[in-house]
Design brief:
This protein is an alpha+beta fold and 711 residues long. It is built from 15 helices and 23 strands.
């Protein structure tokens, strides 16, 4: 059962929750907007710094390349060129001229402590790279053997010599030290192509140690992953915490220039503003709660007044004075409630009248009606009491309906209990234990606000008995037809036996009878007697009342029936044309009933030939398969069926013959056998038949049986 809630409490909670939620959401969005604005400003500043530094670095590198070109063009005739360049350029610590073997041929340096002519530099990368592969080469950072300072070199070819310019990083370091963050840390770091740190104003020991950062977060999360000038958050390697930064690549040397700022410091700079926003949110939340309580009390007072008024109206005090409430909508609702009360009174009267009419109809119908819910009987009508031979409704109400249904029908009833059904047959049990056949139909209706199952019941015991009687009458009629066929079958054998007996007697009187003649005559008599005996067996099998189903071959059963009718058909000069399926079809059912249907149709054709005095008489029998159904067609040229009665030929007791010639139940029982017993269909129609170049009007009986009954 659902827990009942307080409307007042619910409204108050919703008002407070809504007010506070709006304020908190606005506060969160403000903080988020502030954070994003701060980040955007930092991104803009960092990108400006990157552009400025990258331009400065490019200028220094370009200046070195220009100097190398100048040396290449002027060194051969001006030996003072090296001195002039070193002394006038603060970025250059020394210039070496190596011969093709890597031996110092000439040099000039700010300090000459560790350099002499004749030194072998052939194992240095800046010599080997230019000698073997390139016209020029920018080296990674290394500790110079000249002045033992972190240095980079630029080597270039000079005809048969190689020039090497040693570049100090002091000026570049001084330049990038100008750029600082709010925490007084330096913004910039420079790495060479392999990730070795070239410049780090905050930790110069990393430069001296040639620290390689290629495996750290600055490379894995930023330089190797993001595009230049794209900010990302990565782990710091000189300070704890996260860093926000971007980078740019130097094309000539593949250096990475990094600009960074502590992400934690960014958040700290926003702390005071965030605290202020939180305090403002709390302040407005308190105001929202106060206003929500005040507004809700005013609304609740109107609800209390309205509840008091409606309660008095519900108790029947319709003349109560109604004061205006605080809200127009509630006043309109109260007026609508008064109108609704009047309408409810009218509808209650109409509903009571309808209920009385339903009860009158419920008990005056000729059918037994049972009302049930979930399989439990809640009411029955008077006809049901009489049908089940009960004295009181107490014998049924609140009892399971399955108590009154034969157990073998429980499954089908359970299946149909949850849906509307077409009429179907079951066996019911009266209070005295007697069982009877009933036709039932169920519908789900709404009664007094609930879904109720209404079941109509009709006792069909007498109808079943009448059907059985009709079947027996049909069987007797068929027996009458068969007796005539027996007479035709026996006439020729009896004539033969009579002729043989007379012949023996005649020859005996004249004394010409010998033993051979007697033996031959006796053989003929025995042969015909056996034929008569077999004929009796065939007809006796047809009249068996065995109801046991069996698998039979349709073609064999049809031929067996034609054998019974053979003499009669020949007597009336009826010619047969038979067309059977190549493959034999087995059907599971009552073969004698199938024969009875076939014989009834053939006998009707025979009677039509006689009645219409048709001279050339022919019957076509055709087997085929269509749309997963076995089809048997029986056609004749006996004049057809009059159009005004063709739709009635399968009705009981309908016949066009004289009363002495027919009962009108043969085709009715044929229809019952095919439709009800064999679950197929049978139709009759008029057709045109072409026989020996003559056109005739005839009838066609078409029997269709589902192939899922065949194998």
């Amino acid at each position: 059962m659902n827990k009942i809630k307080s409307l007042k409490k619910e409204i108050l909670q919703l008002l407070v929750l809504f007010s506070i939620s709006v304020i908190i959401i606005v506060g969160i969005l403000t903080i988020w907007k502030l954070y994003n604005s701060k980040i955007e400003i930092i991104k803009h500043n960092q990108n400006l710094v990157l552009k400025q530094v990258s331009i400065e670095v490019e200028q220094i590198l370009q200046e070195i390349e220009d100097i190398s070109l100048y040396i290449s063009e002027n060194y051969s005739y001006n030996y003072l060129v090296l001195k002039n360049i070193v002394e006038t350029n603060k970025n250059i610590s020394s210039i070496l001229i190596l011969d093709k073997e890597g031996i110092i041929e000439d040099f000039y340096a700010v300090s000459n402590l560790n350099i002499y002519k004749g030194f072998d530099y052939s194992n240095k990368n800046y010599f080997k790279k230019v000698k073997n592969y390139k016209k020029y080469y920018w080296s990674n950072v290394f500790l110079s053997s000249v002045d033992e300072e972190p240095t980079i070199s630029y080597s270039f070819k000079m005809q048969d010599k190689i020039g090497v310019i040693m570049i100090k990083l002091t000026e570049l370091s001084n330049f990038i030290q100008r750029f600082k963050n709010t925490d007084n840390s330096h913004m910039l770091r420079i790495f060479d192509e392999t990730g070795i740190m070239i410049l780090n104003p905050d930790s110069k020991q990393f430069v001296l140690q040639r620290f390689n950062a290629s495996s750290l977060s600055v490379f894995t999360d930023l330089i190797n992953k993001k595009d230049p000038f794209t900010q990302a958050i990565f782990n710091g390697f000189t300070k704890k915490g996260k860093q926000l930064g971007a980078y740019v690549k130097v094309k000539k040397t593949a250096w990475s220039i990094l600009v960074r700022q502590s992400h934690d410091d960014i958040l700290k700079s926003l702390t005071s503003i965030i605290v202020s926003i939180v305090l403002v949110v709390l302040f407005f939340s308190v105001i929202a709660i106060f206003l929500s309580i005040k507004i809700s009390k005013k609304i609740f007072k109107s609800f209390d007044d309205m509840q008091s008024i409606t309660s008095q109206i519900a108790d029947g005090h319709y003349n109560i004075k109604v004061n205006q409430l605080h809200y127009e909508e509630l006043n309109n609702l109260l007026e609508s409630f008064n109108k609704m009360q009047v309408e409810i009174d009218k509808r209650e009267d109409n509903l009571q009248k309808s209920l009385n009419s339903f009860k009158g109809l419920f008990n005056s119908t000729m059918e037994s009606i049972v009302l049930s819910k979930n399989g439990i009987i809640i009411d029955i009508n008077n006809v049901s009491l009489k049908l089940f031979q009960a004295n009181s409704r107490k014998d049924f109400v609140n009892k399971p309906m399955f108590n009154f249904i034969d157990e073998k029908y429980h499954k089908i009833v359970k299946t149909n209990l949850i849906k509307n059904t077409e009429p179907y047959e079951i066996e019911l049990i009266k209070l005295n234990g007697k069982r009877f056949q009933a036709l039932v139909q169920g519908k789900i209706i709404e009664f007094e606000g609930e879904d109720i199952r209404l079941t109509a019941v009709i006792d069909i015991t007498e109808l079943k008995q009448k059907d059985q009687l009709l079947f027996q009458q049909s069987k007797m009629a068929s027996m009458g037809e068969m007796i005539g066929n027996i007479a035709h079958q026996w006439r020729q054998p009896l004539n033969t036996i009579s002729t043989c007996a007379s012949g023996i007697k005649f020859e005996k009187e004249f004394g010409v009878l010998d033993n051979d003649r007697v033996a031959d005559t006796m053989d003929i008599i025995v042969e015909n007697t056996q034929f008569l005996s077999k004929t009796i067996d065939d007809f006796r099998n047809f009249f068996k009342s065995d109801k046991k189903t069996e698998k039979f071959v349709t073609k064999i059963v049809i031929k067996r029936a034609l054998k019974l009718l053979d003499a009669s058909l020949k007597n009336y000069e009826i010619e047969l044309f038979e067309n059977y399926l190549e493959e034999e079809l087995l059907y599971e059912g009552l073969s004698n009933e199938f024969i009875q249907v076939f014989v009834n149709i053939i006998n009707n054709s025979k009677d039509a030939f006689i009645a219409n005095n048709v001279e050339n008489r022919v019957i076509y029998i055709n087997e085929k398969v269509e749309s997963n159904n076995y089809i048997l067609e029986i056609k004749d040229n006996a004049g057809g069926i009059p159009e005004h009665i063709i739709d009635k030929v399968f009705e009981p007791y309908f016949t066009t013959k004289h009363k002495a010639q027919g009962t009108g139940i043969g085709l009715y029982m044929s229809h019952q056998i095919i439709v009800d017993h064999m679950h197929g269909s049978i139709i009759a129609e008029n057709i045109n038949v072409n026989y020996e170049n003559e056109h005739y009007l005839g009838a066609c009986f078409r029997i269709s049986l589902p192939l899922n009954k065949t194998t």
